[in-house]
Amino acid sequence: MSLERGAWAGEKRMNRTQSSRKGDGTPANGPRSPVGDNAGDDPKKILVLASTLNLTHRLGCTPQWWQLLKAFREQGHEVIAIPYLGDPVESPWWRTHENPLSLESKIMNRVTESNSDHIAGRQGLSKRVSQTLIKHHVRPAWFKHLTNVLDTEHQDAPVDLVLMLNIPLNHINGLSTHIRDEYGVRVAYWDGDLPTILPEFAQERGFKFDYYEGAQLDEYDAFFSNSKGAIPALQQRGAQNVHPLYWAVDPHLFHPLDIQEDTDVAFYGHGDEMREEWLNNLITEPSQRMPHRRFVVAGKNFTIDLGDVHREGVIPYSAYDRFVSRAKINVNATRTSHANVYASATTRPFELAAYGACIVSQPTKGIEEWFTPDEDLVVVESSQEAQDAYEQLLDDPNERRRLGENARSTILEEHTFHHRAHRILKKLP
Questions:
Q1: pLDDT value at position 203?
Q2: pLDDT value of residue 308
């Protein structure tokens, strides 16, 4: 199915010359600056409330928050970061304030990891207890703490923007209004878990909270969504000034490695829920029909038969680049919630593209918003098409290289966190 890309994503790259793809003194996978036309923003003082800053808590968006905050700082903005879960983490790109409920948040995080909804605060008495704690303890503590933080910061220079990143929305009702009314500071929110965090998907995915039950979305000056298709649902819940804001990468952290390719087809992920069909089409059946090829799957919580594959378990985040770069082909298998809701971005294709990987993907509605099929990656419609694509690509290293270089070029042109940082500031009222 052919779809027009959104205007914000930039022009199609179908007319790129071979020299621009392959490199003519400034190669696509070289150290070109990712800033582009994003460097014109006046310096801002940005206070960020992030879901967490600690990678050990294994919240999926945390590495992306690091890259976004780093991009803000590299563009000349002052960044202050506070985690909602766990302790603050210092870095070269931001300074911090304490989490007023650090201990409580870590205890609650452990409780919500329970498989029982009645223990984890999702049903019954535990849900009522959780709601009471939020109303009478969590919310007042954050109101008081942020008042103190803003009072302190304004003694030096006023904060220009409060940016909230995947904070449980219904835990902080009224906080945005308080900040804007008392300090005249704009407040924006970016949800990177859409559409799966919406109530119609959250239970199936096993999310720890239903962030949207009772949430007051109309109090934010701008609301950003990693899913364009989820925007109508956000607007129905009251969100205003809503914009798509897709995932991206820091291309200085995500770049090709020149190492031996000892894997034919690779996939890394956690869990198979809501993507069983396409893991079967992209991994299980092709691996069984291609015993002469080496398929590698890393990650955890797979319950389906993955076929004739080599399993590598969980890979440290710092070793992900080697896992991707060892493979001649990397697979993009997406959960149905993202694949079927238009332009619902996950981090995987952006990271794979930044590594210069040759990507074979399942069909995903709106993938043309980010990449050009057959130029940047290959999209297949069945397990047989996947097998045919694998055989063709494995026998054609030049085509694999062309796709990988094109994908990396697209990242540098449109999908760095410098682009995303600039877009956030541009869309504020």
A1: 56
A2: 97
Which residue in this structure is represented by tokens 């076929």? Answer: 307
Residues 201 and 333 grouped into a single domain: no
Is residue 79 located within the same domain as residue 111? yes
Please say whether the beta carbons of 38 and 424 come within 8 A.
Answer: no
Task: Please choose, from the candidates 49, 71, 42, 43, the residue with its C-alpha nearest in 3D space to the C-alpha of residue 187.
Answer: 49
Within this chain, do residues 219 and 278 fall inside the same structural domain, yes or no?
no
Residue 9 inside a domain? The answer is: no
429/415 Cα distance (integer angstroms): 23
**Is there a domain that residue 284 lies in?**
yes
> Would you tell me how many other CB atoms lie within 10 Å of the CB of residue 206?
14
Contact 424, 163 (CB under 8 A): yes
The tokens for 371 are 């990449």
The range of the structural domain enclosing residue 314 comes to 263-415
Number of structural domains (the chain) is: 2
Let me know whether 103 and 227 are in one domain. yes
Positions of the chain with pLDDT under 70: 1-40, 58-59, 113-127, 202-209
Residue 167 lies in a domain: yes
325 membership: H or E segment, kind and range: helix 320-325
Q: 205 and 269 share a domain?
A: no
pTM of model > 0.70: yes
Q: Give the whole-angstrom CA distance, residue 98 versus residue 104.
A: 13
Based on the domain organization, do 338 and 393 belong to the same domain? yes
Dihedral (Cα; 55, 56, 57, 63), 10-degree rounding: 10
220 to each of 38, 80, 332, 337, how far by Cα in Å? 24, 19, 34, 25
> Residue holding tokens 């294709």?
349
Q: Which of 413, 131, 414, 383 is nearest to 247 (CA)?
A: 414
Same domain, 233 and 369: no
DSSP letters for 153-191: HHHHS---EEEEES--GGGSTTHHHHHHHHH--EEEEEE
Confirm if 8 and 404 have CB atoms less than 8 A apart: no
